[in-house]
Amino acid sequence: MRGLRTAGLALLTALVLLGQASAADPARKPATYEERAGLLVTPITALPSDSPAIKEITPPAFPDAYAVWSSTGRDLGGRIWYGISANAPRMSAHLMQYDPESDTWKDRGAVLEQLRAAGLLRAGEGQIKIHSRMVTAEDGWIYFASTDEDGEAEDGSVPPRWGGHLWRIDPDSGTWQHLLTAAEGLVAVSGVGRYVYALGYWGHVLIQYDTTTGALKRTTVGSVGGHVSRNFLADVNGHAYVPRVTKAGNKVAAALVEYDAELREVAATPLEFYAGRISIDQNHGIIGVAYLSDGRLAFTTHVGQLYLIEPRADGPAKVSAMGWFHPQAGTYAPSLFAVDGRRFLAGVTQRGRRFDWVTFDLQSKKSVAHPLDTKGLRDVLLYCSMARDNAGRFYLGGWASNGKGGQRPLLLQVTPAP
């Protein structure tokens, strides 16, 4: 009986609710690795010598719209997807679709509306954030997660009252399907094929969804206090890479843990440039991520170090520190893009109130930084992103002052210098 009670409590804690398929699968499936990784590349042979051109784009308004965190992605038609978060308790994030060719928007729905339609909305529930990236799996669906923050303790002792949800949407019809309700807040999603992964807090809980069978698995990677990494990665072999954070006395250490498709731990590589000098509770962990055409993965940490993952089919991946992404060591690097798919990476960085557009050469391990024009906006914050359109333009999300003592969503379209 005790064993059954324990299993029952574990099930209740997870609150796993498999969504019922209510619509046919998307008509189009990704045909290449680049499509599954959301990767679009353009030729580049040298580090650029000028700043990019910047244009602000304005999404449809909704009550309590607040910010865009790391929630961006592209679909197979080159449209850009945003999760726009709300701020106040019991409010709802919205999912937006932007067509760069026609410069038009579609509001693809609010999380609370979708929960109500599915008969899953609980009295008083809020889902203020869509924080995760938009991930196109091999079945053609776009996967993402929503979450709430109501009642959570910043020291990691109490999870958000309403936890998080794992979703998928048909990019053409706009049909949502609910896959999972979790007690944890769900901050990130990753995957490039059959398996889609979500990262929950507190404690870095890794959840796997099998797009072929609908099966769900989970394991706890481990973290400390109120620390949660804002991003993580998964590779073409179905392996996931999540930081494990530990603390001994006053010393914090981190390692990148590789899991295979069975959620078995394959390897753990120490990350020397992860924690930094700030409080670990204020550290965002892995923030910028980028997928290269040959299957390699790149990421930046809160303190601005660039790492490269080289997956191997017959053994643990090789994880290498590549140096500081910005020419000035320790610069916060919240976004990352694979420019040509092999050698050059780019992204925005922040030091104080200054934002730069940085291009990094993986071959020489050198980078250049040029000022990023924030259009005279006040109180700007730019956050994680990796989406590009078919014209090769980059997309950044964040917030800016709304002129009324608060923030509003900020979306920037970046055209690289020739």
Please specify the SSE layout and strand pairing.
Elements: H1 2-14, H2 33-36, E1 53-57, E2 65-67, E3 72-74, E4 80-86, E5 94-99, E6 104-110, H3 111-117, E7 135-136, E8 142-147, E9 164-169, E10 176-182, E11 185-190, E12 195-201, E13 205-210, E14 216-220, E15 233-234, E16 240-248, E17 251-259, E18 265-270, E19 286-291, E20 297-301, E21 305-312, E22 315-324, E23 337-338, E24 344-351, E25 354-361, E26 366-371, E27 381-383, E28 394-401, E29 407-415
Antiparallel strand pairs: 1-29, 2-4, 3-4, 4-5, 5-6, 7-8, 8-9, 9-10, 11-12, 12-13, 13-14, 15-16, 16-17, 17-18, 19-20, 20-21, 21-22, 23-24, 24-25, 25-26, 27-28, 28-29
Overall description:
With 418 residues, this protein is mainly beta. It has one domain (50-415): Methylamine Dehydrogenase, Chain H (7 Propeller). The protein is built from 3 helices and 29 strands. The strands form 7 sheets. Strands 2, 3, 4, 5 and 6 form a 5-stranded antiparallel sheet that branches. A 4-stranded antiparallel sheet has the order 1-29-28-27, with no helix packed on it. The radius of gyration is 20 Å and the shape is globular. The relative contact order is 0.15.
